[in-house]
Queue: 2 jobs
Job 1
Amino acid sequence: MEDDLTVSPDVLAALVRAVGSPAGAATAALVPYFGAAVGGESTAVDGLGLDLSRALLAGIDYDWRRPFAPGERVHVRVTVEDVFRKGANQFGLLAAEFTDAAGDLVQRQTVTFIERGSGK
Amino acid sequence: MTQDDSVTNGESAAPDGSVTLGERTRGPVTRVQIARYAGAVGDFNPVHVDDEFARASGLPSVIAHGPLTVTLALDAVVEQLGPQALRSAEARLSAPVFPGDELTVVPTADGVEVRKADGTVAATVRLETGTR
């Protein structure tokens, strides 16, 4: 999944309200997107083949080059990094890369889902 | 954890000049906060916003988004080091966070962990900091 996004000041403001601390504005500029939700629910469900009702978020990694700037245009590319089974559990890894207008990386996220005891 | 000397908002300095993170609290987490986060990132998975769905999934209530818990942990770090100091984070979620949970963000050897009031660790975050 690929898309072009504008880093909406309204979204950043909503995130600042959700964080609810004096540092919220600075924090929001680091984490305004959740990679697995950028393309809607189908990104995680279809891409990883997980049962959403049993899938849990196990982890999220960030690699930052800089905070996002309000109003800037960014390109996001969401890819399935890996899908594997460990015991009874199914794991799925999504990567989301955000690049700016110059093509430079802003940040990279890796999101790990686990579907427990799926028995597939 | 170390970082450059230019960031001095609230952390304590060790004798060698390195910066030590302090403990911070966040919350109690509220349903409004969870709903605001859902709206901000566009994640309306019903386990976060629909109590009936959450209970049918075996949970006592809705749960906070994992990335919200991580965001609150990062916010406690940003409060002390500033946003430019963060280079990378590896967060692992280990327990659900419910409305009413007060979270304590506690420094560890290589980052922070998020503890609930009963001591349960909700998330562990390894951090890499430094100048860019």
Job 2
Amino acid sequence: MKAADWKLRTSQGQGLLIAIAVFLLMFTLYVGNHPAGLTVPVATTAANKAVLLALVAMAQTLPVLTGGLDLSVGMVFVMTNCLASSIVSGEPWQVALGIVVVLLAGALAGFINGAIVVYGRLQPIITTLATGAVYYGIALLLRPVPGGDVQPDLADFMTYTVFEVVPTSLVLLLAVVLIIWLPFRHSVVGRGCYAVGSAEGAAYMSGVAIDRSRLAAFTLAGLLAGVAGLMLTFVTFSGEASASIGGTYTLNSIAAVVIGGTSLYGGAGGAIGSIFGAFILRTIDDLLFVFDLPPLWQPLFQGVVLLGAVSLGAARVFRIKNRLELFN
Amino acid sequence: MNEQQSLRPTASGTTVPGRTAEAGGTTPFWQMRGISKRYGGILALDNVDFACERNSIHAVLGENGAGKSTLIKIAAGVVTPTTGELMLEGREVKIARPQDAHAQGIVCIFQELSLMPDLSVADNICMTSPPGRFGFINHRAQRRRAEALLERVGCGDVNPLELVKNLPLSRRQMVEIAKALGRQPRLLILDEATSALTAADVEKVYAILHDLRRDGLSILYISHRMHEIKQLADTCSVFRNGRHIETFKKGTRSDNEIVRLMIGREYTQVYPAKPARPEAPAPALAVRNLSWGSRLNDVSLTVGKGEIVGLGGLDGQGQRELLLALFGVLRGVSGSIEVDGKAAKPGSPGEAKSPRIRMALIPEDRKSEGLLLPMSVRDNISMASIGRFTKGLFIDRARQDARVDEVIRRLAIKVGDPDSAVATLSGGNQQKVVIAKWLMTEARVILLNDPTRGIDVGTKQEIYQLLRELADAGTAILFYTTDYDELIGCCDRVSIMYAGGIKRELRGDDITEENIVASALNIDLAPGHPGAEHGA
């Protein structure tokens, strides 16, 4: 029985396992060819960059699980960054309050997305395209020119290491997984998200609280984007209302979600896969760097990896016997 | 004006149904009083009184569209009645959402499965009220509960961690039953819940239902399989045209009487005269040994040049799949299809409509498969034949419009401006647009999937007339309809499908409601039944 369980778990977690394997392979290649090898500074730099995308990708995972895309995660990320660069400084209590306000702002942005989608019955993709622009506008108002600051001791702590071995950013990521993702995954509301994404009609018929699940998914997405925005502030010591950062992170988060094995149709996958999807995307950049490939190659290379990952997910098409189902 | 309305009794409350249950003096467990449900102009349920008791299995019988599914949807909270009240143990209850029904212990096993394919069996079984505390799920407890329930329905071999989408249909249906049992039902409703089960599973389900009856449950059983009802039910209720016709105890009515109760309606439609043919014309469409998975089993039939062949039977017996297979929509179809003696097994709808085959399919759901709702009437009508109106790379609008307008006139489609969106037309006119689209291709073989559903009587008659004209001009027509009246009035021959195969072919005077209903239910009527009385 146990062996059968393991077999099932393995086959169901295939997407995740492939993502982990690909990442390990790429990271080994990277470290093996890095002039310095695997030193703590190399790992920390890699981790700091990767964790930002990983957090935004985790945020993206939740709406995707319910069957919708959130195009505003990157903009919430930028908005909370600008907010954090204004209020996370001063006395310890001010810093603590600032952090809470930043996280609440992210969650509120996500809640607004969810409320419009659920109660306004609008498509998530277009809703979040619009609200994303609004959040970017707020970011610009908060920080018309790049600048601001953040409590330096905290920033240093968050971007260096714990016990001089483990990058703090990885610890933060682990904490987010343990405190936010796993409890959510095992909650009734979290399962509701999977149910809605898998078959909304069946979920409704089973008495699942559909609206609550959707709302929770978008709100948590906003919260996670807020955590990422805070982390960005610690990394850059400043805030910048950059549309290109917001846009790039949004699109890369979708790519990371897909590479991590979450279905864009919803209902299957999870945030852990997205973390590794994000790591893979970041490692591509680093690989190009250590192999001295011109940076011009980077988008092309990323595109090829994404295409490969998506093709794996699309293999189901070959099993469909009724062509009408292709369009559903 | 529609058919259902014209058939309403002149005085309400003329029927006796529902009263039988109250005769004992005790309050019935579940009661529906004066329930009506109106969808637009269609009255799906008409002042229905219905009751069922504890410790009983109550079968509900009726033709397609008799109101059975509306009845159970109301109980399950999917549909709210227009008027009337629901009573549980003598107290009125409000059931506006599925959650309300669950809270009252009303559990429904639907025909279309209510499982989430990407989730595990255990997740699905415990979806409604998972074990655990503070909103978190206790996975071990969930798994134990799932295992116990699976064991109970005889599916101990199914691993609760398996994803539902990886199970075969018959197992899924058993999971669905396990899920329902897990909700501690007091009123259990099964809507065709055994349709996909194997014989062994069916036995198991019977045993469970008998146990549940002994435990005091009230069970509503909807099935098209007469032998199941005979084996299971204590009480039967017959519905017809949205009305509760009669409730009787098991064994007090013969099969023939039950069939008569189910039919018993007047003819309201007028059909064009059928041509007298001494023998069937040469086949234009010849289908041999067509099979597709478990849904189509060795179907063979022919449609002659100029002939209208009806396809009958209860919903979901493979009629839709047969038409889709002929039209090249399904993959992995075995068997042969010939049109005018030449092999013509299309690999896609595009190939099916090509000049080599010239087939047309009027689909079931005009909104999703028939029309491009936001596009204009003209664009919709020319959609299938657009290739005929090109000049170089471009569409020759003038030629297209001239031909389209001709078809609009021929079908008398009521449209103010042919360039307005097809969504603005009435249902009947939309259906005419779908038909017009395929007339433009000058098809040799026309397949129709329930083309008159939900449209008014006047348009229906125009469509019958048109089909006969097309047939007289040499078109072969295969006509699936859920309305038995149409099979009798319109068709030269009728093939009744059951469980993916052709159960029986009727021709000439044998096309009667009794024969159609009996074949559709897969029962053989006793010889010498008074079928002729019924004006067929």
